[in-house]
Amino acid sequence: MATSQISENISLVAGEALTVNRFVTVDANGEALMADDALGLVGVCQEEVAIGVVAPIMSKHGAVVPIELGGTLAAGAEVMSGTDGVAVAEATAGSIGAGTLLEGGVSGDVVSMIFNPIRRHAA
Is 119 helix (H, G, I), strand (E, B) or coil? Predict the structure, then answer.
């Protein structure tokens, strides 16, 4: 069961429709967008939000947050954002790691993750 604790939300206007429990980034206008593997992360969207509406985004490093999986992953897996903000297995050099799963699951499941974004550098 996915849970949240140590809450700290930020509020950003949605630059597109946002999906709950997925990674988000911010664009040049300061608006929230669904993250992908090439963008920096600002947090995890906490509710479904339409374009132009203020979105609550969990952004506290070390917080336990619910996240939607984009594949089959085990507890303890290091994850990054995949297409449309879902959690996928972290690549190595150059990726932006997003955190560590506390639960495993399959694509579409919502599980608990420790949010701790960090850029991995080339070896």
Answer: strand
Residue 28 belongs to a domain: yes
Q: How many domains in the chain? A: 2
pLDDT in tens, 33-66: 999 865 678 999 999 999 999 999 999 888 999 9
69, part of any domain = yes
Q: Give CA torsion, residues 49, 50, 51, 52, to 10 deg.
A: -80
- Give the pLDDT confidence of 75-109 residue by residue, as tens digits: 999 999 988 999 999 866 667 788 999 999 999 99
Nearest to 8 by CA among 37, 46, 40, 41: 46
CA 1 to chain centre: 17
